[in-house]
Amino acid sequence: MNGRDTDIGSRLRRLREARGISLSALARSAGIGKATLSGLELGTRNPTLETLYAVAGALGVPLTALVLEPGAPPTEAVRVPGAAVTATLLEVFEEPTATFELLRMRVRPGIVQHSPPHAPGVTEHVTVYAGVLRAGPADAPLLAGPGEHISWQADIPHIYSTVGPDEALATLLIRSPRQA
Amino acid sequence: MNGRDTDIGSRLRRLREARGISLSALARSAGIGKATLSGLELGTRNPTLETLYAVAGALGVPLTALVLEPGAPPTEAVRVPGAAVTATLLEVFEEPTATFELLRMRVRPGIVQHSPPHAPGVTEHVTVYAGVLRAGPADAPLLAGPGEHISWQADIPHIYSTVGPDEALATLLIRSPRQA
DNA sequence: CTCAATCGTTCCGTTTACGGAACGAACCAT
DNA sequence: ATGGTTCGTTCCGTAAACGGAACGATTGAG
Question: Which ranges carry the HTH cro/C1-type domain (chains A, B) (predicted)?
Answer without folding.
Answer: 12-66
